[in-house]
Amino acid sequence: MKDLDVRINESLDILIENELLLGPELKLMLKSFKEEKTTVGFSFGKMCFWHYEAFSSSINPDIYKVAAAIELLILSFDIIDDLQDKDSDYSWNKTPELSLNVALAMLVMASKTIDETSFEHKRAAIKLVDEYALKSINGQQLDLLNSCRDEDSYVKMITLKSGSLTAMGCLVGEVLAKGEISQEVEEYGKYIGIIQQIKNDIQSLKAWGPKNDLLNKRYSLPIIYLLSQKNDVSKSVSSYYNNDIVTDLDNNATEDALTNGGAIRYAITIKNVYKFKALNYLENVAINQVGREYLQKLLK
């Protein structure tokens, strides 16, 4: 069998090429945007495939189309997120008005593609896609409002924004195979997204550039922890967030407080809590070894 990433990529190419309702300009942009994301792999499509395989007695080749459809939806969300945050150097940020049309086309194509497959339970899959996509959009709205400033509200937000999409990738594969979903898959699927978001939050703070959450006055678990401390650095950061000072932050002191003051360790601890919860659920699902190892890697 061909490498799974290759099969999903080929299915994406076919979907784009065969979509008769798209004009040549939209197709060209869609292809180029897809190519920019190809290098990072198709993790959501692969989660869909492996969960379909785990619960199915035989492989319907249409599963590659569904995996590609899931990747179209995820890419559309990535594009919209980047356009809203304005912190990406991907090509779609250069022409936001045109790129938004491409993202909208991807959203429609995702459901349309699943509906055109031969799966018995395709309507249940589309319902799941709609439900979890709306949850993610709600989470994205909360993230843009930047109002989640304590651990509980922040974790709820990233559960909606990121956890909903990773859970969706897993659950669509499961429901296509057996017409129903299980709590185990939903829970660890959700935790994968939480863990990945916390890892991104930590990574954001490692470079003092345009994507740094602290410099952009965004809230994340390490920053929430830092602001809860009663010391000179936390007071300075709080003043910076509240626009009480216009001078630059002391980058060295702030970075030291994040790294050595417990903020990063705190975020890693929260991440590991969800990692062990996910692993406990994963033990009860009969995914093949390759898929299991890939999921375990996402949980690290």
Characterize the structure shown.
- By secondary structure, the protein is an all-alpha fold.
- The model has no long low-confidence stretch (mean pLDDT 94).
- 73% of the residues lie in helices and 0% in strands.
- The protein has helices at 4-18, 24-38, 43-55, 63-85, 96-115, 122-145, 151-178, 183-204, 221-228, 232-241, 251-260, 263-282, 289-298.
- It comes from Lysinibacillus capsici.
* Main sheet: strands, sense, barrel: none
**Beta-strand percentage range:** under 5%
Helix content: over 70%
Overall residue-averaged pLDDT value: 94
Helix and strand content put the structural class at: mainly alpha
Q: How many E-type strands?
A: 0
Return the string of H and E elements: HHHHHHHHHHHHH
Q: Could you say which overall geometry the principal axes of the C-alpha atoms support?
A: globular
Number of helices: 13
Distance between the termini: 27 Å
Q: Please give the radius of gyration in angstroms.
A: 20 Å
Low-confidence stretches: none
Enzyme class: transferase
Keywords: Magnesium, Metal-binding, Transferase
Cofactor: Mg(2+)
Organism: Lysinibacillus capsici
